[in-house]
Every structure is written in structure tokens, then in C-alpha cells.
Amino acid sequence: MKQTIERHDCQKYGFNNCILSTNKNDMDAADFFILHHAQLSGYPNSMRYQLPTRRRPDQRWVWFCLEAPPNSITEHLDGIFNLTLTYRRDSDIFSPYGWLEKIEEKNLQTSDIKANINAVTPQVHGSTIKPPKELAVWVVSHWGENLARVKYYHRLQPHLSVKVFGSHGERLCRDKTCMKATLSKYKFYLSFENSKYRDYITEKLWSNALWAGLVPVVLGTTRKNYEDFLPGDSFIHVDDFSSPAELAAYLHYLDQNDTAYQAYFNWRTKYVLHISFSVFNRICEICKHVPNLTAYKTYKSIKEWHWN
């Protein structure tokens, strides 16, 4: 992980009596030992993080992974881990990139609901806020002509003007506030995932689209799976259209029809958006699950579980 700490109190994220540490001297005393999958790449031959040679018998080792199966090398990790901490709902500890919370469950006042709408929907409520002028935008970090999302983009491009940032386009600022301000100038965000796997819905939807106030156009897992996480009328799925040309025609229609476009933001009157920006927040989630953990277990094959 790029962020490095010695000790971090999880109380900041609402978890009491829980300390996160990167100090190796705390290893023996720790109840949980978290290994980020990116640090295990190539294990055991070229591992960037050397595993301890001994472990406390009752200590639980946690496999922390936010990538889909094709992007996660899980060979040689058999019989090591006791818990999974991933984006999948069937993980021992579920750690999504983002989630929605019903407003009635949060007991918000009317003023809070209006603030929730206005904070992330730049063109709501008429003349006081200028609507976005540009149509569609896409931030892509990994470009490969053989990737499904790139192939779809090439078929979409002749019918739709798309501003591309990232490895195959203009450089985009990395600061969250700056990025949000840049993306909010557009109406639609191409939330194209690099893999199509169950529950794999990343920051491409939660941060780049919903948090920035854009309507996400998604390519990834099935529509039904997306609807497990958010209302079906809050996003546009490429599978709903017979071709990229048909999708483009629909986006052009929404661009000219404010009422139809604004309907994609109705969810903001019912839900509050949460984003997992901090890796510390994700790891501290372990503390919440401690009382509900079952008996000590070991995953015989992380690869088998991950590919399922």
C-alpha cells in the first residue's frame, strides 16, 4: 500500500478499541494480520513482503484484495489465510468501493436531504447552477486493445463524443477535489470495468460517476448484479441496448430532454452515498466484524474461492 503508518486508531472511523499497525514488533500481539494482495504478487519467488516464519496459533490472517480474479495472481497462497476482505458480498468481511444508505435509516432532516442532492448533482434546481456543457467522459488507467471495454469504446466513438483522460488521453489531476470538479463538467461517465465478475463494481461507478454528479453508463457485471447495490433507474447499462450506436442515440436523447435526464438523480432523495476513499477505513472494518466471526478456519485455496 502506498500509505505507510506505524499506528492508526480506528476510532476515527467509528471503531473503538481497535488499533491498526505496520510495526513488525506488534506482530505477535496482533489478533489479525492483514496482507494486501498487491504485496503478494509472485509469491513465493518475488514477493515484495516477506511472510513471517512463525505465527500465533490463534492469530487470523486476512487476505485483502480489491481486484477481480484475472488481475489477481493467487497461486501458492493455499492454506495461509483464515479470512477474506474483498469487494464481494460473500467475503468474510465485505469491503465495497461504495454503497448507498437509505435516508429513513439515517434519520435525516429535509434540509439534509436537499444538501445531499445539491452537493453532488450540479445541474439540479434550475438557473442558479449551470448545467454541464460536455456530454460524456471516461478515465481509463489501463488501456489494452484486447479489453472488452476498449473494444466497446471503439464501436461507440463514431456515434458519441467522449472526452478521455488517463493512459490513452489527457492527464487528469489526482487530487479528489480537483478530479471531481473536472468530471462534474460532463453529463455521463463511462463506468467501464476491466473485468466482468460478480460484485466487481469499483470507483469507476461510485467515485468517478455518482460522487462527481454524473450518470454512470456501466459495462461490467450484469444489470441484475448492479441492482443489488443501487436502484435500477440510477444508471444506464450497455446491455440494455442492441448496439453502441443505439446507446449513443439514447444518450443524445437524454442530453436534449432534461426531465428524462434528471430522473436518473431521483435516488438522491432516498439514499445517501458513501465512498471508501481510505484504505485504513476498509481495514478497520475488521473491528466491526470481530463479534460475529465464526470458529477459526483456513482457506485451503484462495484461488478456488476467488474464481468460484
From TrEMBL:
One of its GO terms (biological process) is lipid metabolic process. Keywords: Glycoprotein, Glycosyltransferase, Golgi apparatus, Lipid metabolism, Membrane, Signal-anchor, Transferase, Transmembrane, Transmembrane helix. Residues 133-305 form the Fucosyltransferase C-terminal domain. Residues 4-98 form the Fucosyltransferase N-terminal domain. Pathway: Protein modification; protein glycosylation. It is a single-pass type II membrane protein. It catalyses: a beta-D-galactosyl-(1->4)-N-acetyl-beta-D-glucosaminyl derivative + GDP-beta-L-fucose = a beta-D-galactosyl-(1->4)-[alpha-L-fucosyl-(1->3)]-N-acetyl-beta-D-glucosaminyl derivative + GDP + H(+); a beta-D-galactosyl-(1->3)-N-acetyl-beta-D-glucosaminyl derivative + GDP-beta-L-fucose = a beta-D-galactosyl-(1->3)-[alpha-L-fucosyl-(1->4)]-N-acetyl-beta-D-glucosaminyl derivative + GDP + H(+); an alpha-Neu5Ac-(2->3)-beta-D-Gal-(1->3)-D-GlcNAc derivative + GDP-beta-L-fucose = an alpha-Neu5Ac-(2->3)-beta-D-Gal-(1->3)-[alpha-L-Fuc-(1->4)]-beta-D-GlcNAc derivative + GDP + H(+); an alpha-Neu5Ac-(2->3)-beta-D-Gal-(1->4)-beta-D-GlcNAc-(1->3)-beta-D-Gal-(1->4)-[alpha-L-Fuc-(1->3)]-beta-D-GlcNAc derivative + GDP-beta-L-fucose = an alpha-Neu5Ac-(2->3)-beta-D-Gal-(1->4)-[alpha-L-Fuc-(1->3)]-beta-D-GlcNAc-(1->3)-beta-D-Gal-(1->4)-[alpha-L-Fuc-(1->3)]-beta-D-GlcNAc derivative + GDP + H(+). Gene3D superfamilies: Glycosyl transferase family 10, C-terminal domain (3.40.50.11660). One of its GO terms (molecular function) is 3-galactosyl-N-acetylglucosaminide 4-alpha-L-fucosyltransferase activity. InterPro entries: Glyco_tran_10_C, Glyco_tran_10_N, Glyco_trans_10, GT10-like_C_sf. It is found in: Golgi apparatus, Golgi stack membrane. This is Fucosyltransferase. It comes from Eptatretus burgeri (Inshore hagfish).
